[in-house]
Each structure stands twice: as C-alpha cells, then as structure tokens.
C-alpha cells in the first residue's frame, strides 16, 4: 500500500532516531497510522550533510540542514519534516510552518572525555567544537585552552576523541540521550556555565500551512509548555539575527507563581574569544513568549552597544 504519511528527515543516526520518535508517537495517537507501512520515512540529503569538511559555524549557514527537506515539503513529495529545532532558521519558506513541538529532552550541553568539569581540563588542553557558542563559553571559563574545529556526527566525534585528537568535546545531552549514549557524558554543564543553543533538546515538526489532515494527525503530539519556551527562545533569536554576528545562547523555562504561569528567559551574547559576554534574564506572563524574547534580545543588543 502507499503510505498515508511521508516523513522527511536527514539521514544521520540522530535525525533517523528523531523521525522514528515522531513515527511512533503518531502510531500511538492514531490507530490508522499504526498499520505497517502507514508511515514512510524519506531520507533527504542536505547541504549541511554534504559539506562535512568545512567549519559551519552555528551563527552562519542558516538553513543548511533544512532547505532541501523544505523544498520536498513545499512540492508535496513529503507531508511533514522532523527537525532538531535548534537547526531551524527563524524565517521559514512561504507556505510552511512549525506546527508541532514535542516535549523537550535535556536542553543542556554535555562535556565528553575523561574530565568531569571545565575546571578539571589540563592547562592548555585542546577542546574540539565547531560551535562558536560552545567555544566562547569554554574560553570564558578557561581562557588557557585552545578550541579547534570539530565536525561530523556524534559517532565520528567520539572516535576522534578516543584517538586523542582532542582532550574533550561537547555535545547536546538530548542527542546523546536519544542515541542511548548518555554514558559518554563526563558531566552535564549547567546553563549558568554553558547556556544552551536556542531550542536545544526540542524536536519540531514542519508542515504545509492549510494541510488540515496532517494538522489533525499532529495535534496530539504538541507539548504546549515546550512550545511556549521554544517560541520565546526563537523570538530572542529573531531579534538578534541580522543585528549581530556574535554567538548566541538562550534558554526559557516555565514556572508557576501562585496561579500565574511565568516564562523566564535567559539570553547570552558572547564574543568568540569568550572575553566579552552579556547575559540578560527576564520573566513575563507565559502567554507572552514573543514579547519576552524580543525584550531579552533588545536588552542584549543595548548592553553590547554600551
Ligand atoms: N547541530 C547538530 C545538532 N542539532 C541538534 C543536536 C542535538 C539534539 C537537540 O538539540 O535536540 C545536534 C548535535 C549536537 O549539538 O550535539
């Protein structure tokens, strides 16, 4: 039979795991999708997958991991796309939207290697990361270390670490958890030392605006609390995008203050050498994620100008 739903995804082990998480959730929510072959997973190569050798800084290369997938979604060759939300640009192609965000896994970064903290790294240690955000925050804590570019999927990076090319590296805890590799983490770094990337740990689903059948299938998968947090973080990113070329971090969480639900958003702008960092934390009612993200972004831009 032909599939009722076609899911588009990148082909990395992490991307495939995430697509299968969405497939299982859909099958659990809708008996019609539980039949074998009701859901097809289509692997799509993106520019980010093809260009493995160059250093793709986190702040550059917008849409590197999403464009080819979005083209197939717009064309109707797939019905939905599963993304790591931290790889999704703030501006989407006309006609497409992030309709659904799953419950967030651990948003923090993990330190990988034999050292259980940044403080425990040997003097002058070589740390591998191609993320300007991670590199800058490592240098902020440990100005003596050397940051070297480090790419490839999770398995490749772990192999390079075992071969001794670097003393340590950093990976998203969520990715390690999904790959059942959390035992590789020597430490999970708290947001006060390593503010996560915008939307780290959240899986998002992109669909065609107006595709009501797909929307109905996806509705039960949305996690409202995660969606609010990611929305605040992405509003922060949208405010800073284009206004600065500096590494960015952002992390929102929900809390209850009496009967009131509050969103607290931490934002970070930091120079790649780690020497000039600005942090801002603001709290707002939970129904104002966009205004909160914009306010934190504007406060960071003002601090950077002064
Ligand atoms: N840039 C690649 C990428 N995109 C999302 C994740 C982790 C999973 C997540 O954030 O949900 C990773 C790997 C990593 O940074 O370690």
How would you describe this protein?
This protein is of the alpha/beta class. It folds into three domains: 5-102 and 202-222, 3-Layer(aba) Sandwich (D-Maltodextrin-Binding Protein, domain 2), CATH 3.40.190; 109-189, Periplasmic binding protein-like II (D-Maltodextrin-Binding Protein, domain 2, 3-Layer(aba) Sandwich); 230-305, Porphobilinogen deaminase, C-terminal domain (Double Stranded RNA Binding Domain), CATH 3.30.160. It contains nine helices and 13 strands. The strands form three sheets. The chain has a five-stranded mixed beta sheet, sandwiched between helices. A five-stranded mixed beta sheet has the order 7-6-8-5-9, sandwiched between helices. The longest helix has 17 residues, at 13-29. The site of the ligand NCc1[nH]cc(CCC(=O)O)c1CC(=O)O has 9 residues, from strand 8 and helix 6. The ligand NCc1[nH]cc(CCC(=O)O)c1CC(=O)O binds at residues 84, 86-87, 171-172, 174-175, 200-201.
